[in-house]
Amino acid sequence: MPKTITPRPRTAVGVDGPLVSLGALLREWLPRQRWFAGKDRPVTELSVLSVTELFPGCLHLLVHASHAPVPTPGGTPPPGDCYQLLLGLRENPVPRLERAYIGRAVEGPLAGLAVYDALHDPRSANLLLERLRQPGAAGPLRFEADPGAHLPGGLPPRLLDAEQSNTSIVYGDAYILKLFRRIQPGVNPDLEVSAALAAQGCTRVPAPVAWFGTTEPQPATLGVLQPFLPDATDGWTLALRALAAGDDFTGEARELGRAMAEVHLALAEAFPPAGPGENGRTAEAMCARLDAAAHAVPGLRPFVPGLRTAFGALATCDTGPAAQRIHGDLHLGQVLRAGRDWFVIDFEGEPSRPLSERRVPQSPVRDVAGMLRSFDYAARQRRPWRPEWARRCREAFCAGYAARAGWDPRKKHALLRAHETDRAVYEVLYEARHRPDWLPVPMAAIKRLAVWGG
Ligand SMILES: Nc1ncnc2c1ncn2[C@@H]1O[C@H](COP(=O)(O)OP(=O)(O)O)[C@@H](O)[C@H]1O
Ligand SMILES: O=P(O)(O)O[C@H]1O[C@H](CO)[C@@H](O[C@H]2O[C@H](CO)[C@@H](O)[C@H](O)[C@H]2O)[C@H](O)[C@H]1O
């Protein structure tokens, strides 16, 4: 069962804690947030795991949202998730913070105060940067910085309003702070991997300059500050632009393949290799994920037998490239092009998987499959959809990858197909939960992948 930070007894909001007043507000507000993972299951209880006054008028909270357990094949989903919140408290709602307004506390010691998401407030964002500039402790929170980094103060903050799994603030177009929203115990691979790659001398990944975490109720990473690439455009935007203009994207795709191979080589240097992947175990895990996804998304059920053949073929094929640390959630939105160079960001892995699982070495083919799926997503953004455009980008990406990695993903047919299928299954679940309008995109791939040879 995925690990999550779980509540201790007697701290439940609405029981007798000092935050008695926030329970009702958060219960209504949390499920509406893009980053809230349990949208498909009602919240049965909210508990406050830790509260720290970060500065006057700003509370840092770790909150656990419990859900009624739903038995599914492949395991019971976690009873809930832990989320990081920064809450601003003011006497009166501030008009310019209207979008961030959560509500007015009606009971308890905070009664009468206006409560809002403090990350929208430039004053709180500034104070947070100041905290990162001065490493040290605040209650259970620990702020740390790269000793070689000299962070300037007074950089104007700007909240990114991209649809994200987390929340990011850009400071003066020089740094970007990502606050993880869904918190699991342990070091977050986004910090762990980017720090290891920086130590390795890999310049394709922005190196962390400061970060913070908590020691309670269990050690966990809460946020990472990295250099911001001001003139960068993400691969998704570039791909859609090329499609709209009828432009070829194969040159970019080839370069991207090369860049990704370089990152994989650096990752293999930075973390001990794990030996040949065990395809049988990987196939079993893929089958279990398929069953769980089909349980949650009925539209997937007719395709299960066909999809299983891809996993069956994996179980009996050659081992393939050694398992190693990988990106884990690679798609066009995770790569940035600045000038002629591609950079790779967000090494967090698939947000719905337990951290421990995301840190396990996996086949690099998984990342290749993620990017191939992304070309398909992009090509389906236009009508009529452009299968030829996607096919050529996929070829070019693999060719660029092969030129640098020394092995060609196209020659690992069964491995690639199984990982692409597993990734499409993940996408079906992701879209069903977060963006039901997008569900037809991965479902189209599912229909294709369920037919052997398709
Ligand atoms: N170092 C950076 N430089 C420029 N833009 C960045 C950088 N890091 C992230 N971004 C922008 O922020 C967006 C969200 O970042 P990401 O790490 O993918 O967050 P999430 O995990 O919430 O999806 C990216 O799509 C990109 O546009
Ligand atoms: O960027 P995140 O780490 O939050 O990743 C999650 O959200 C992505 C969408 O924003 C999702 O990616 C899927 O949609 C993309 C287009 O928006 C497409 O390029 C990807 O190929 C597709 O997987 C990702 O799966 C999810 O983990």
UniProtKB/TrEMBL annotation:
Top enzyme class: transferase
A Pfam family this chain is assigned to: Mak_N_cap
Pathway involvement of the protein, from the record: Glycan biosynthesis; glycogen biosynthesis
Superkingdom assignment: Bacteria
Reactions this protein catalyses: D-maltose + ATP = alpha-maltose 1-phosphate + ADP + H(+)
Span of domain Maltokinase N-terminal cap: 29-121
Keyword annotations from UniProtKB, A to Z: ATP-binding, Carbohydrate metabolism, Glycogen biosynthesis, Glycogen metabolism, Kinase, Nucleotide-binding, Transferase
Documented EC number(s): 2.7.1.175
Residues spanning the membrane: none
InterPro entries in the record: Kinase-like_dom_sf, Mak_N_cap
Protein family membership: Belongs to the aminoglycoside phosphotransferase family.
Subunit structure: Monomer.
Protein name stated in the entry: Maltokinase
